[in-house]
Amino acid sequence: MTILDDILCVKRLEVKQLLMEEHIVSRETISSRPSLFHLLRASSKLEVIAEMKRASPSKGMIASETDPVEQAKIYEKAGVACISVLTDETFFKGSMTDLEAVTNVVKTPVLCKDFIIHEVQIDRAKRAGASVILLIVAALEDDQLLRLHRYAASIGLEVLVEVHDVNELERALVIDARIIGVNNRDLRTFTVDLAKTEEVAKRFPFHEDRVFISESGIRDSVDAKRVAATGAAAVLVGETLMRSMNAEAAITSLQIVKAGATS
Ligand SMILES: O=P(O)(O)OC[C@@H](O)[C@@H](O)c1c[nH]c2ccccc12
């Protein structure tokens, strides 16, 4: 059993529970938040997706007492492209309450970061005010991935499709994912390697209307430059910002001008 298997076991129980509760299906399709996709396409700098992350299975407690409202305000002030909020309780000590607290105070796109395996979780994210959800290719069968991706789009949510290798990239492209992130952390072994971004970038169709994001393990401007050189539009950063005494300055140091950009 890998950690991903453990997490998916818990998610199946959570979904059962959610399906027993009153289930409100979303109909609203218009989001009041800007489109993450368009924001990333238009930007000439490496954008930051900043994460509210209290804990993780690989690092244990990171910043358990952080106030999500204060953290989100710092992120927004620093001009991040999107705020990611971990909502998994069991493994990451996040919650839907954290997500709602953040969506209530910011205007930026907000990503509901969880292990989504069922539509009921997507409805819940939408109700909590998120504008983007995460779908992890390694956690889903092809037909599930396609179904959930379509469902999210049908209720006006954007989707960050997470891959870990070239094979998973192919699966993301088959469903026509527009926002694709490579997780530098292997969810099975926890090893972090920025070379993952380079490996997947070599096969990424940059000439098409898609954006490429590098997720996890980004600590400083050296890392940011390395992934920006692959063509990445953004980095998704959690731990570094949660531990930083000055998250705003840390974000600024990552927002580097991309090579070839005119401004
Ligand atoms: O804290 P880091 O190393 O900066 O990583 C952030 C983010 O990429 C990571 O939290 C993450 C990426 N994909 C996930 C899927 C589920 C839970 C968490 C994640």
Automatic annotation (TrEMBL):
Q: Where is the Indole-3-glycerol phosphate synthase domain?
A: 6-254
Q: What is its EC number?
A: 4.1.1.48
Q: Name one GO molecular function term.
A: indole-3-glycerol-phosphate synthase activity
Q: What is this protein called?
A: Indole-3-glycerol phosphate synthase
Q: Which reaction does it catalyse?
A: 1-(2-carboxyphenylamino)-1-deoxy-D-ribulose 5-phosphate + H(+) = (1S,2R)-1-C-(indol-3-yl)glycerol 3-phosphate + CO2 + H2O
What sort of enzyme, by top EC class, is this?
Answer: lyase
Q: Which Pfam family is one of those matched by this entry?
A: IGPS
**Lineage from the top down?**
Bacteria, Bacillati, Bacillota, Bacilli, Bacillales
Pathway as given in its UniProt record: Amino-acid biosynthesis; L-tryptophan biosynthesis; L-tryptophan from chorismate: step 4/5
- Family per similarity comment: Belongs to the TrpC family.
CDD domains in alphabetical order? IGPS (cd00331)
Q: Do you know which InterPro entries this protein is assigned to?
A: Aldolase_TIM, Indole-3-glycerol_P_synth, Indole-3-glycerol_P_synth_dom, Indole-3-GlycerolPSynthase_CS, RibuloseP-bd_barrel
Look up keyword Zinc-finger and say if it applies.
no
Which organism encodes this protein?
A: Sporosarcina quadrami
| Keyword terms of this UniProt record | Amino-acid biosynthesis, Aromatic amino acid biosynthesis, Decarboxylase, Lyase, Tryptophan biosynthesis
What's the superkingdom here? Bacteria
PANTHER family on file: INDOLE-3-GLYCEROL-PHOSPHATE SYNTHASE, TRYPTOPHAN BIOSYNTHESIS PROTEIN
